[in-house]
Amino acid sequence: MSTARVESVAVEPSGLSEKQLRILEYLRANADDRTYFKSRLIADELGLSAKEVGANMGAVADAAGEIDVEKWGYSSGTTWMVTA
């Protein structure tokens, strides 16, 4: 009889592109400090365009298990509500 050792590891969502993983990590890292994120501000932080952020956010929202990502508003750019 063997004993299996189970270790806790962070599981990365499979199938995400490099850009999507960067956006997801940014949201994970900042979700405790803020609730609302503008696409253009995420883009500025990650060296992307706001359009790239918006185009990839659907896949990020689907893959983000520990945080909820919801499109929140459109005034002066898209805003995303992120909650743990």
TrEMBL record:
Protein name in the entry: DUF7123 domain-containing protein
Species, as recorded: Halorubrum glutamatedens
A Pfam family it matches: DUF7123
Residue stretches making up the DUF7123 domain: 12-83
